[in-house]
């Protein structure tokens, strides 16, 4: 199984998860079994498309799930329609979230977890207006 994490910079499994999925410059794609990883650029940002409607993964990436702090409805719909599970990050680093995933302690995103329902950081959102 492969899980993608939005990141600003590659520090391997110690990378900090980016605050917002759609505007993350890169994704660290981790194979859960081997802990090997690869860095993939956010293709939507490179193409100049709308960052909030990110469709970033190709068939070659074979991504099964993403773990993120914040995501808009458009990105979630695109991912789930491609059978990619979306989990809410609970910790700062990829490694800490992988440990929670392996213990089945990460929860799936619910429609009320999306950024647009919590537009400011005081309410637990990312502050990004969709």
Residues in helices, as a percent range: 10-25%
Biggest pleated-sheet summary: 5 strands, mixed
CATH class: Alpha Beta
Tell me the number of structural domains.
Answer: 1
Task: Name the CATH homologous superfamily.
Answer: Dinitrogenase iron-molybdenum cofactor biosynthesis domain
Query: What is the third-level CATH name, the topology?
Result: Nucleotidyltransferase, domain 5
Low-confidence stretches: none
**Gyration radius over CA:** 13 Å
- Chain oligomer state: single chain
Order of helices and strands: EEEHEHEH
Number of strands: 5
How large is the share of residues in beta strands? 15-25%
Structural class label: alpha/beta
Could you say what the CATH architecture is? 2-Layer Sandwich
The N- to C-terminal Cα distance equals 30 Å
Shape: globular
Mean pLDDT value:
81
Helical segment count: 3
How are strands sequenced across the largest beta sheet? Answer: 3-2-1-4-5
Structural write-up:
The protein has helices at residues 43-46, 73-81, 94-102, and strands at residues 2-7, 26-31, 37-41, 65-68, 85-88. With 130 residues, it is an alpha/beta fold. The protein has a single domain, classed as Nucleotidyltransferase, domain 5, CATH 3.30.420. It has a 5-stranded mixed beta sheet. The longest helix is centred in the middle third of the chain and has 9 residues, at 73-81. It starts with a strand and ends in a 28-residue tail after the last helix.
């Amino acid at each position: 199984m492969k899980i993608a994490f939005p990141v600003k910079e590659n520090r391997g499994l110690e990378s900090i998860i980016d605050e917002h999925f759609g505007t993350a410059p890169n994704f660290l794609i981790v194979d859960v079994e081997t802990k090997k990883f690869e860095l993939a650029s956010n293709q939507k940002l490179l193409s100049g498309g709308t960052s909030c409607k990110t469709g970033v993964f190709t068939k070659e990436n074979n991504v099964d799930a993403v773990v993120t702090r914040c995501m808009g409805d458009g990105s979630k719909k695109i991912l789930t329609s491609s059978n990619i599970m979306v989990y809410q990050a609970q910790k700062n680093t990829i490694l800490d979230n992988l440990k929670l995933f392996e213990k089945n302690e990460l929860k799936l995103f619910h429609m009320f977890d999306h950024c647009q329902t919590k537009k400011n950081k005081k309410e637990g959102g990312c502050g990004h207006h969709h």
